Amino acid sequence: DAGVIQSPRHEVTEMGQEVTLRCKPISGHDYLFWYRQTMMRGLELLIYFNNNVPIDDSGMPEDRFSAKMPNASFSTLKIQPSEPRDSAVYFCASTMDPASYEQYFGPGTRLTVT
Amino acid sequence: QKEVEQNSGPLSVPEGAIASLNCTYSDRGSQSFFWYRQYSGKSPELIMSIYSNGDKEDGRFTAQLNKASQYVSLLIRDSQPSDSATYLCAVNPGGGADGLTFGKGTHLIIQP
To answer: What is the pLDDT along chain A (114 residues), one digit of tens a residue?
Structure first.
C-alpha cells in the first residue's frame, strides 16, 4: 500500500516567486496535516484538514501561506510570494484511526528560496 | 504555549547497551504520546505510541509514560548502530485527531 506521497521532493526558487507543494494522503485517511521543519524551530504544525475541511490553521505563519484540499486524495500548500526564511522541509502527514491518531509522514519537500 | 522538551544530545551509547531518551511536556491535559525516529534527510517514522500511564513494550523498544510528572521516555534495548538517528517526542494535546506538538529531538549515536 502506498504511503503519503509528496511532490516535488526538492524545489529551488527565487524570492518573490510562487511555490506550490502537493500531497496525496494514504487512501482512507480522513485527516491531513502540513508540517514545516527547520533546524531552529524543529517540526511545527502549519494546518490540518478533516474530511477536506480546514480545522486549525493557527500555525500558518502569515497570509503568504495558503492551503487547500479540494478532494480526499489531494492537498496543496502554496507560498506567494516566497521569501528566503521560508526555506525548510515541508512534510505532509495523514491519519485515519480515531482511537490512536497515529500520523504517518510523507517523504517531504525540501524548499530552498534564494 | 504548549511545549515539549527534549535534550538535544548527542547521546552516545555503546552497541548492545540500553539507550534512554527522555521528554517532558507542558500541557497537563495531553492524552496521546508518540516517539518518532528520523534519519538524516528522511521523514519522521512512527515507532511507538502510548496513551496510559506505565510501560508499553514493542520488541526492543519500551515507552514509559508518567502523566503526573508530565514525563515520557523511550528505552532501546540491545542498541544497534542502525538505531543511530534523531528521536522526536510528540504530544497530541487535545485527545482528538489534532496536530502534534513535537520536541526538537535527541540525536542518538550508537558506537560500534
So the answer is: 689 999 999 999 999 999 999 999 999 999 999 999 999 999 999 999 999 999 989 899 889 999 999 999 999 999 999 999 999 999 999 998 755 678 899 999 999 999
Distance to chain A for B33, nearest Cα, Å: 9
Q: What is the 3-state secondary structure (H, E, C) of A70-107?
A: EECCEEEEEECCCCHHHCEEEEEEEECCCCCCCCEECC
Closest among B33, B4, B47 to B94, alpha carbons compared? B33
- Tell me which chain B residue has its CA closest to the CA of residue A103: B46
Cβ pair B46:A43 closer than 8 A: no
Select from B43, B46, B51 the Cβ nearest to the Cβ of A107. B43
